[in-house]
Amino acid sequence: MPTDNTKIVYQREQRPTSEEVASVYRSAGIRRPVDDLARIQQMIDHGNLIITARHNGRLVGVSRSLTDFCHCCYLADLAVHADYQRHGIGNELIRLTHQAIGSRSMLLLLAAPTAEGYYPHLGFEAVPNGWIIRRTE
User: Fold this and answer.
1) CA dihedral sign of residues 28, 31, 35, 38
2) Which residues have CB under 8 Å from 56's CB, separation 6+?
3) Which of 10, 44, 58, 73 is 20–30 Å from 129 (CA)?
4) pLDDT given for residue 117 in this prediction
């Protein structure tokens, strides 16, 4: 993380660009179709709660969710640029996501195997009753 005196700015955004989101995903190492910017754009367009973290205007973190704001929220993507990890940015993105959906709504996510140890200390609990039909492409 740069050592200048500027702060990370968090905000709810409608549409960060597909290029900057793909760049954060790529750097964070999460498996998303980062070479298919049209698909990344669709992911952004159809997410209805996007919270970003920016440093000097540069996108360094993103939380992308699908929610009804009253009962459930699926946190589809949480990514922080590798240069900015381990500074609490992911924690703050989750906190702001939870704040936006309110206490009456559950927050659900699927963790990559490499990230499973990250979520319990943030208050998430593992649930054994999930089911999935996987993508075919």
Assistant:
1) negative
2) 2, 4, 6
3) 44
4) 80
Residue 125 token pair: 């609990």
Nearest to 100 by CA among 63, 126, 127: 63
- What pLDDT is recorded for position 3? 58
* CA atoms within 13 Å, Cβ hemisphere of 127: 11
Task: Spell out the alpha helix ranges (H) of the chain.
Answer: 18-28, 37-46, 89-101
Q: Which two tokens stand for residue 47?
A: 């997410």
Mean pLDDT by 10 residues, the chain (137 residues): 76 92 95 95 96 96 97 95 95 96 92 78 82 77
What is the pLDDT, as a whole number, of residue 107?
Answer: 94
Could you give the angle at which helices 37-46 and 18-28 cross, rounded to 10 degrees?
100
Cβ atoms 107, 93 nearer than 8 A: no
* DSSP label of 111: -
Q: How far is CA 67 from the centre of its chain?
A: 13
Other residues' Cβ atoms within 10 Å of the Cβ of residue 82? 13
Residue 128 pLDDT: 82
